[in-house]
Amino acid sequence: MSTDLLTRDLPSGVRILTFNRPERFNALSPDINAGIRAAFDSVEDDGIRCIVFRGEGPRAFSVGADLKVETTHAADAVPDATDMFFPGKDIMPPCRVPVIAAVHGYCCGGGWELALAADICIATEDAEFWFPQTGLGLFPGAGGTGRLVKAVGKTNAMEVILTGRHVNGTEGFAQGFVSRLYPTREALDDGAITLAEEIASKSPLGVTMAKQSIVRAMDRAIEEALLEDNLRLFPLYGSEDRKEASAAFLERRTPVWRGR
Known about the structure:
Layout: E1 5-9, E2 14-19, H1 30-41, H2 43-46, E3 50-55, E4 60-62, E5 99-103, E6 106-108, H3 110-117, E7 120-124, E8 128-130, H4 144-152, H5 154-163, E9 167-168, H6 169-175, E10 180-182, H7 185-200, H8 204-217, H9 222-236, H10 240-251
Parallel strand pairs: 2-3, 3-5, 4-6, 5-7, 6-8, 7-10
Antiparallel strand pairs: 1-2, 8-9
Helix pairs in contact: 4-5, 8-9
């Protein structure tokens, strides 16, 4: 069994996925890709309500493609479709539950694309984000361009992507693609679990529907977004979780969610 991706499930319903190639700055690998797919596919069966990505070692979250692998630089190098996360060449497959990227150290190329694909990105103040692809005859086309421009706007995305400039965690927070900042790696790890457990404590149905609506609303006019929200919201009023929430409120206790 590969140890490139470590999985740890907490009793709270939080799944922690750790890139475990610190000697390669947690560069992505086919085993990591396959591990992420498997971890996402099993969330419902395993009762997982939130996922956290993190990188092992002190130096990197992930630097994306492994530039020390000779085939990466081959003249006829073309990504193998079986190694991509999703047929649309997105860096991350769809996931029912929220995904948090907890970034420290280097986060570049495909590593940054993965952090942008997460639902929430948190980071240390000195984390370093950058896209080196234009210096390699490429561009961040596995979700990096589309997601960064939505997160920070055209001008900021153009400047960062075209120059390959490094952006630290503090600037990322100011630009809006980082939602929370932490002074140290230890504080980041603790903060990631606290945030994930807070999400996991909410109604699974409500969280899943909210995630879908937020993602869809990014590309739709408000009228279309409201219509889709209504189609998701109204059925929830008859759900077991909604009834449990009302009963728990009246009885002054913590609700017991069943995801139904």
